[in-house]
Design brief:
The structure holds two protein chains of two kinds.
Chain A: E1 5-7, E2 10-13, E3 19-24, E4 31-37, E5 44-50, E6 53-57, E7 65-68, E8 75-79, E9 88-95, E10 103-104, E11 108-112
Parallel strand pairs in A: 2-11
Antiparallel strand pairs in A: 1-3, 3-8, 4-5, 4-9, 5-6, 7-8, 9-10, 9-11
Chain B: E1 10-14, E2 19-24, E3 32-38, E4 45-51, E5 56-58, E6 62-67, E7 72-77, E8 86-93, E9 102-104, E10 108-113
Parallel strand pairs in B: 1-10
Antiparallel strand pairs in B: 2-7, 3-4, 3-8, 5-6, 6-7, 8-9, 8-10
The chains are: A mainly beta, B mainly beta.
Chain lengths: ~110, ~110
Amino acid sequence: DTGVSQDPRHKITKRGQNVTFRCDPISEHNRLYWYRQTLGQGPEFLTYFQNEAQLEKSRLLSDRFSAERPKGSFSTLEIQRTEQGDSAMYLCASSNSGRDTQYFGPGTRLTVL
Amino acid sequence: GESVGLHLPTLSVQEGDNSIINCAYSNSASDYFIWYKQESGKGPQFIIDIRSNMDKRQGQRVTVLLNKTVKHLSLQIAATQPGDSAVYFCAEKGDGGATNKLIFGTGTLLAVQP
């Protein structure tokens, strides 16, 4: 199965620590998206890359959040100085330009103590 | 702060019955709509999608209906099985192509009784 993969699947951290998550998209997909999902809610868009360019960012993406996709393949999402409110499932999705279907990975569950 | 809704709308059906899950979308300029199934602890799984120039699209055991007049989307699942139990989300891609982000609805919990 060559779907979207995310690492780690679970992360527990203490408030104030930095965390970094990785996403590997489907290999031929040039678009990559990050979403955040809290319990009982639908995913909320954070940011989107086409190749290595970050083309769109949500206002949800505060200055403590940064995402990169340096070679247009995998992406990382870093959260600095984590807060309890950052506890959520962080989802990555990918798609091909010219096709709108976004395929999601299994997510990274972040718990901030 | 943001409130978290823990009580999803729930649809309870008997195994073998047909299920209809409804969704109201917000942006009349949205040109693409998609349904996802999400099981506990997993990422959303693509089910079916439809563009705004269509009213209906069928897949294997699933049909999506789009009513642009009232901004309503529905997902029909034929012969519902226990494995269909999950939370179902609709999502729209809006602004006539000006954005690629998906905006998700609240979600509906489908509970299939054996």
